[in-house]
TrEMBL record:
InterPro entries: CRAL-TRIO_dom, CRAL-TRIO_dom_sf, CRAL/TRIO_N_dom, CRAL/TRIO_N_dom_sf. Pfam families: CRAL_TRIO, CRAL_TRIO_N. This is CRAL-TRIO domain-containing protein. SUPFAM superfamilies: CRAL/TRIO domain, CRAL/TRIO N-terminal domain.
Amino acid sequence: MESKVEAVAKELHDNGLHSETQEGKSATQEIQLVHRDDKINEEDKKKISLVRALVEKQDPSSKEVDDFAIRRFLRARDLDVDKASAMLLKYLKWRRSFVPNGSILPSEIPNEIAHNKMFVQGVDKLGRPIAVVFGGRHTQNKLGGPDEFKRFVVLALDKLCSRTSPGREKFVVIGDLNGFGYSNCDARAYLGALSILQDCYPERLGKLIVVHVPYLFWTLWKILYPFIDNNTKKKIAFVENKRLTETLLQDIDESQLPEIYGGKMPLVPIHEA
């Protein structure tokens, strides 16, 4: 099994992705980048002002959007003011329509909660909140349909974002595929989640660490891969089973690491966080 994972790691590298067997930024370098993000530089301020002016003309509600949020949209569109403005306008329209009350309540997603598939607890060494998603517990929601799944995604992302702070706005997700099988290959749902993450929560994902990867997953991966933007691809890492705890401890202190990976932190269901 490990040889297959290693073979896929080479394929990932060739496609611009990586496994955690490769070297990345040092912890010191990453911490320095996070600290620099605490303040908005003069160049960013100019572009933020331009986006704000363009968007407010079409949507006065954008006055409530802070500068850090606008900076995220700019970064998601490579600092292109027009593209970032269009993205922000689309998001504001979507938010009013899909989350009219400002937030999703657990009572709106009973079937998704029943899967018991997403948890949150602790922070990594950069202070980013950690979520754990169990892919082997997800199945197609036949009762609530795709809209309930999307509401679940929004609730989860809002919960994670509420644990961040201005200038330190990213979170980390551990995608655990232990037990993942054919019944979990819900491509439509995963594409819906990906669209929400990339289009409505830009520059929020700090890292996606995928663990316990079964060979079956790579069939689904080939479907999802073309829809993942380049910025997101750079944040995805696959971990070999034999190096799991060792690798996670590079990013997460033992006191903050979930118990199921050899740490000391109990997990809390996302809707109770």
